[in-house]
């Protein structure tokens, strides 16, 4: 009731990206308060053995997860897991920091009760992501969505994917390769999907895991 009468009208009165920032900052702050994640779990999480799923050898508490794009920087995955998400996919993560597309880049479609997301890849870079993901995470299932930097030529994309993969594999339960969010280069999607497969062939012996090459924007 509090959300519907107070929080939702307040958030919807703000530009979408500002509302997103407020929510993620609030979750991050709660995670720093003793008992904050416990409170999130008590308020929002639902647990039942009938919801559990095993996929590719990974046991999920439930099949509902948070997709990449919400926790872009990998700094609130523990809070989202505490709220009851069966998994949290962070990112997209790129080797170097980059701002994404110019603002405004998120638009509300009120009639469809939806958002139009044109953020692109807004990343704080690999080093910052590793610093967040190396924190103790308890039972959280974490996926890493990795991409190339916009400035990286398409024929060098596998090197960006490989750098992210090698630095993140010890922290991730699975990987997704983002071959879509690259402003002005959608004509190269087929070519980049092929290079991402070459990347996986080169890196598959580096660590145990699963990957998925799926467009996400």
- Provide the helix percentage: 25-40%
For the CA atoms, what is the radius of gyration? 18 Å
Please tell me the overall pLDDT. Answer: 83
Give the low-pLDDT segments. 202-217
Strand content: 5-15%
Q: What's the β-strand tally?
A: 8
The main sheet comes to: 4 strands, parallel
Order of strands across the main sheet? 3-6-7-8
Taken in chain order, the helices and strands follow as HHHEEHEEEHEHEHE
Structural classification: alpha/beta
CA-CA gap between termini: 33 Å
The global form is: globular
Tally of contiguous helical segments:
7
TL;DR?
The protein is an alpha/beta fold. Helix content is 36%, strand content 15%.
Overview of this protein structure:
The protein has 217 residues and is an alpha/beta fold. 36% of the residues lie in helices and 15% in strands. The protein has a four-stranded parallel beta sheet with strand order 3-6-7-8. α6 (157-168) packs across α7.
Sequence-ordered SSE layout with sheet pairings:
Elements: H1 2-12, H2 16-32, H3 36-44, E1 53-55, E2 58-60, H4 77-82, E3 88-93, E4 106-109, E5 114-117, H5 126-133, E6 142-146, H6 157-168, E7 174-177, H7 189-203, E8 211-213
Parallel strand pairs: 3-6, 6-7, 7-8
Antiparallel strand pairs: 1-2, 4-5
Helix pairs in contact: 6-7
């Amino acid at each position: 009731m509090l959300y519907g009468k107070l929080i939702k009208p307040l958030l919807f009165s703000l530009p979408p990206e500002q509302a997103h920032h407020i929510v993620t900052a609030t979750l991050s702050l709660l995670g720093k308060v003793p008992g904050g994640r416990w409170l999130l779990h008590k308020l929002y999480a639902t647990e039942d053995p009938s919801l559990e799923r095993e996929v590719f050898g990974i046991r999920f508490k439930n099949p509902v997860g948070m997709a990449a794009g919400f926790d872009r920087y990998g700094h609130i995955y523990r809070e989202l897991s505490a709220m009851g998400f069966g998994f949290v996919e962070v990112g997209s993560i790129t080797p170097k920091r980059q701002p994404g597309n110019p603002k405004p880049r998120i638009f509300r479609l009120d009639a469809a009760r939806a958002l139009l997301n044109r953020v692109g890849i807004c990343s704080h870079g690999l080093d910052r992501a590793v610093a967040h993901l190396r924190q103790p995470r308890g039972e959280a299932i974490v996926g890493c969505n990795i991409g190339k930097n916009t400035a990286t030529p398409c024929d060098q994309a596998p090197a960006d994917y490989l750098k992210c993969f090698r630095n993140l594999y010890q922290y991730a339960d699975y990987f997704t390769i983002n071959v879509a969010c690259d402003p002005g280069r959608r004509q190269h999607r087929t070519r980049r999907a092929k290079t991402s497969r070459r990347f996986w062939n080169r890196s598959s012996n580096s660590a145990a895991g699963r990957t998925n090459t799926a467009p996400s924007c």
